[in-house]
Amino acid sequence: MSSRIVVVGHGMVAVRLLDELGRLTADRSTRLLDVTVIGEEPHRPYNRLLLSEVIADRADLGRLTLPTATDSSGMTVRVLRGVTATDVDRDRCVVRCDDGSEHPYDTVVLATGAAARRPLTDSDERAGQVRVLRTIDDCRELLAACSYPRRVTVVGGGLLGLEIACGLASRGADVHVLHRGGHVLDRQLPASAADIARAALAAAGVQVVTDAELHRLQHDGDRITAVRLRDGREIPTDVVVASVGVAPRTELARAAGLPVRAGVVVTDELRSPGDPQVAAIGDCAEPQSGCSGLLAPGWAQADLLARQLAGCAVSDVPASSAGTGQVVKLKAVGVDVVAIGDGPEPPAEARTVTLSDPAHRRHVQVSVLGDRVVAACCVGAKRVAADLTAAYERRTPLPDDPAVLLLDGLPNSVVPLTGDPTTMPAATTVCRCNGVTKKDIVDAHVAGARDLVAVSARTRATTGCGGCREVVCGLLEWMDDVNPTKDVPQPKHSRNDPGNIHSVASSLIDKEISR
Amino acid sequence: MTTVDTHCPYCALQCGIRLGQKGSGRITLAPRDFPTNRGGLCQKGWTAAELLTAADRITTPLVRDATGELVEASWDDAYARIVAAVRSAQGAAGPDAVAVFGGGGLTNEKAYTLGKFARVALGTSRIDYNGRFCMSSAAAAVNRAFGLDRGLPFPLTDLAGADAVLLVGSNLSETMPPAVQHLSGVRSRGGLIVVDPRRTATAALTESDGGIHLQPVPGTDIAVLLGLLHLVTLAGDTDDAYLTRRVSGWDAVRAAVTMWWPERVERATGVPVGELRAAATLLAGASPSAGGAGAYVLTGRGAEQHAHGTDTVTAAINLALALGLPGRVGSGYGCITGQGNGQGGREHGQKADQLPGYRSITDPAARAHVAEVWGVSESSIPGPGLPAVQLLDAIGQPDGPRVLFVHGANPVVSAPDSDKVARKLAQLELLVVADFVPSETARLADVVLPVPQWAEEEGTMTSLEGRVLRRRRVIQPPEGVRDELRIWHELAQLLHIPVQFAATPVEVLEELARASTGGIADYTGVDVARLDAGEGLHWPCPQVGHPGTPRLFLDRFDTADGRARMVCVDTSPVDDDVRPDAPIYLITGRILQHYQSGAQTRRVPELLRGEAGPFVQLHPVLAARLGIEEGDCVRVTSTRGSASGMARLSADIRRDTVFMPFHFPGQGAANAVTNPATDPVSGMPEFKVCAVRVSREWVS
Questions:
Q1: Are A465 and A435 in contact (CB under 8 A)?
Q2: Going by fewer Cβ within 10 Å, which terminus of chain A is more open, N or C?
Q3: Are A380 and A362 in contact (CB under 8 A)?
Q4: What are phi and psi of A224, to 5 degrees?
């Protein structure tokens, strides 16, 4: 008897679950899973994280599609699209849908995600005109509303809000971001870093208004004309889009009488404490550690649940998939922000070093504890951010002085071959391919080799890849000056003969080469 | 002075050279204008003639005596020892008790005959070769995608016109320096993209507006490639008409790659998003569908020598296909073959699962064809054997090999977990090594057979671009040396094998050509007269008089339906990843002065002066942390073993990674540290990344 699994929701975490189930059951025939997926949206599943890339005109909306689950030898999959689950009947173990269908389950997985919160819903009759960005349809509507350059107000200076703001600014819109707190990205960055980010946003065409409590929309007929803040400020605008967080979608669990706080409460095994046949993963779930709203923990949950459902021992779960710390990177055109760790303020027990460089809109802060990076934030420091992320993820050894982490390494060690012949050390390798130093060239010149062919014949310089020809010619010109041949004007050494190596080589052929 | 035109003995570039012999007998060497090297030569090439006078040249067979010493012996005695051991082992445990380990430096004629010798004279399935450590991942991926694996399916000179070249894990400035000339055009247009955890000499070519260097965490090349494919896909820069007409599997690959957005790639690889985007933009703009002059995606061992190297190469191919590059003049995907005959070596039957003509040993029609050429029954040809790592690992097991022939290889230095390999070889009843110098493996042998080296032999090689080249003799080998073709001919007679083993290269090439007829690597029209007349013959050359095929896939791919096959691939964790007791990555590679296990180049004084011994390249920040200074002796240790070298501090390497060259034996043997975990498809071991701890051994 196969195990019947009903997955409610077909977002990114559900897709991950199906993918993992497919992988884990690919070579099984012993235990057959019979999976039904109920997706509310009519579209094929897509990568929601990339909607802001569509807004920034860096991705085609039609190309966000995620892989479709397929049957494997150990699993059959049935996908329903445009169907909404209305009820989990725990007595009969069926999920009922708005099309009247019923789907019996042994395990029901709630992966219903979260809904965008909307401001002003109670206070303003035109709250419905405030746009959000959660679904493909939202994305289409927002782009249509902003289809020619106009004034846009983004409510909420979190990650998504800033991505939307920068994306629309890159399309030519005049963008304001309203943020309730004292600085943007206040869940990720300390104020000092956010101030730098704010300057970078301004340079990208996004004005930030902080301590901004939205009061109501001003309008002229159906058309929004401005937003009014609680303190009386008014910002003229044509479009308002809100990114003020998400609310886990818990309706089904609540109606089924299961424990719900912010999200559907789940145990470490991702089951509802009220009914082990009900699991929840992703944005709708609330494990012990709380709702994160991020994808990585959702995927880790999907991996863990997949192993349970496929009958793998839980002890087989690799430690790395049990959830790592947060690395958050802003996907905004022109503004580079990476935040690592669990919150805006560095852990008190850690050693924290900071580089603050407002004039170059750069800010780096790194906290280390023992031999590990435990938190960091980087604004305007792309390579440092990438290096810190790698060090954080892999816990690779840190420098003795964490201040070294604030910069992206030392100057490269290879002397540029375009170096000045007069100052180049004698031992500098000029021709890598043949291990020829400046001294070898000088010696050859002194010994009478006065042109490139003669020097090449004596030293083999320039006869490998030919890349050092420029430098060798420079050395020869320099030597012509300091070691001139009596009364004979020296020709300028040709750097750019076509087939340059061959011209040297052919003059060498049949000569005896020796050193 | 007499002169002979031939090719450098080392890498797959097979630079054209002219050898002369003076009245005094001294050999002179100069480059000649040949398409791959255009008159250039690196230090290895220039000094190659010095090998011919190596002081410790073996000129007589050696046999291990009762006291355990290798002593000089007659050929008859050496053969008697071999024949007795083969009979004894096979009598006790069947044909597979004898195994063969070949090499990618052997001529086509020798590679072919060695495969035939194993299957027909020894009757064993157990033959594989060091190309498993070299080309196998690319070969597996390319065969799967295109149905035909030729390293470069276009002449190397085609690179000159491209607007972008993506080099993933190739350091050709050190491994084949004259090839850098072919990148001058793309560099002048700012289109060279190099993916390497180190700022190698090749990566430095991207500087001064030459292009972009992406410096990922070791073992994450595939995520970089998935990220590039993601970006070109999401931006709509794919060649959709080409994908519709010439490719299958795109829909699934497209959907899967949606998951590799650049911020996720940065987190996985350490490559900043901006650099990845710049690379994607460059590639897309260079592609023909965007009106560019052309783009190439090329992989080297850095991308391939992993336990999931086949996946990484597949990701590179998928990227190339999405941009519409393969099978188009001026664009393409290629793999940069390493060993001198790394291409030919994988075509003629040295590989565990292959018969000549790059045929599958499990294909009944292929077996029947080859059986007829060989004059044996199809059923007498054994089935597939074990890939190299598993083959060596089977020694000492109940059904494992008891006798091993090694030709053109030095696995004690070149195989992963090399200390274990040496212990395995010690368990053999008889180890036979054919070589011209006492390599580290030869020193462990029970019988050493002295053979000729490059300028002492005739034959053909197939270069990285699939062009068949003549290797010519300029001097006779020393007295007492016997050519492998003769050795196998004589051993077959002593084993009373009623099958002819041709003993001259011309005869063998003629037989090889017939055996390859109708196969993938079809040499039917290749003959010595045409090569001597200067014809540039790229296989397939399927009929007598056929002009060869410099550019493949222009009309169709070699798959059943003519379409290239995209396969969904994803990242896999590094098999031996960093952890608290081994927090640093080791990567390995080659340096300019040395070639492979160093058995040849370490015998050339000028090359040893250039680079005398093992070193450990590490970042000054890491060195400071570990209390290591320039020139200190540093020990690098993994769960398998350790190796030592001089500290070389350089900001050209990531702070989380150290590099060692793998050319050195003994205490400096990097492969004592590397990981023998293998790729499930190709059998390639994970040479290129493992977790180590690094400590100072003594102060300089």
A1: no
A2: N
A3: yes
A4: -70, 140
State the Cα–Cα distance between residues B399 and B535, nearest whole angstrom: 48
Structure confidence by residue, pLDDT tens digits, A154-190: 999 999 999 999 999 999 999 999 999 999 999 999 9
Q: Is A115 on the interface with B (CB under 8 A)?
A: no
Mutate to test the interface with A, among B206, B259, B630 (most CBs of A within 10 A): B259
**Given this model, what pLDDT does residue A221 score?**
86
Task: Compare all CA atoms of chain A with the CA of B175 and give the residue at the minimum distance.
Answer: A433
Cβ distance of B235 and A390 shorter than 8 Å: no
Contact between chains at A399 and B656 (C-beta distance less than 8 A): no
Tell me, yes or no, whether B172 and B287 share the same domain: yes
Per CB-CB distance under 8 Å, the chain A contacts of B199 are 412, 414
Q: Using an 8 Å Cβ cutoff, are A417 and A430 in contact?
A: yes
Q: Residue B635: how many CA atoms within 13 Å on its side-chain side? A: 10
Q: Which residues of chain A have pLDDT under 70?
A: 1, 29-31, 149, 313-325, 409-419, 486-492, 494-515
Is the CB of A328 inside 8 Å of chain B's CB atoms? no
The predicted pLDDT at position B496 comes to: 97
Query: How many interchain CB pairs under 8 A, A with B?
Result: 207
Q: Which residue segment(s) compose the domain that A103 sits in? A: 3-115+247-322
**A392 and A450 together in one domain:** no
Number of other CB atoms surrounding residue B92 within 10 Å:
10
Q: What is the pLDDT of residues B534-578, one digit of tens each?
A: 999 999 999 999 999 999 999 999 999 999 999 999 999 999 999
Q: Are A414 and A468 in contact (CB under 8 A)?
A: no
CB contact under 8 A, A502 and B236: no
Nearest to B42 among A60, A464, A513 (CB): A464
Nearest CA in chain A to B204: A414
| Parallel, antiparallel or unpaired: strands A94-97 and A102-104 | antiparallel
| Residue found by looking up tokens 């200390």 in the block | B419
Contact between chains at A400 and B624 (C-beta distance less than 8 A) = yes
> In B, which residues are within 8 Å of A501 by CB distance?
38-40, 178, 181
- Residues B94 and B129 both lie in one domain: yes
- All residue ranges of chain B with pLDDT < 70 are none
* Each residue's pLDDT tens digit, A220-274: 888 899 999 999 999 999 999 999 999 999 999 999 999 999 999 999 999 999 9
Cβ–Cβ of A435/B610 closer than 8 Å?
Answer: yes
- What ipTM goes with this model? 0.91
Number of domains forming the structure of chain A: 4
Q: Which tokens belong to B510? A: 């003629």
B598 and B499 within one domain? no
Q: Which residues of B touch A22 (CB under 8 A)?
A: none
CB contact, 8 Å: A315 with chain B?
A: no
Separate counts of helices (H) and strands (E) for chain B = 23, 30
B287 and B186 fall within a common domain: yes
Verify that A136 and A238 share a domain, yes or no: yes
A170, A324, A433: best to mutate for the B interface, most B CBs within 10 A: A433
Q: Are residues A44 and A91 in the same domain?
A: yes
Q: Is A124 on the interface with B (CB under 8 A)?
A: no
Residue where one domain finishes, among candidates A278, A293, A322: A322
Q: What does the pLDDT read at residue A411?
A: 57
For residues B662 and B301, the answer to whether their CB atoms sit within 8 Å is no
- CA distance, residue A54 to nearest chain B CA (Å): 9
Mark whether B109 and B251 lie in a shared domain. Answer: no
Whether residues A139 and A230 fall in one domain = yes
Residues B329 and B393 in one domain: no
Residue B493 inside a domain? The answer is yes
What pLDDT is attached to residue A422? 81
Q: Which two tokens stand for residue A260?
A: 């719900």
Q: Are residues B163 and B100 in the same domain?
A: no
Task: Supply the CATH number for residue B279's domain.
Answer: 3.40.228.10
Among chain A residues, the shortest Cα distance to B652 is held by A412
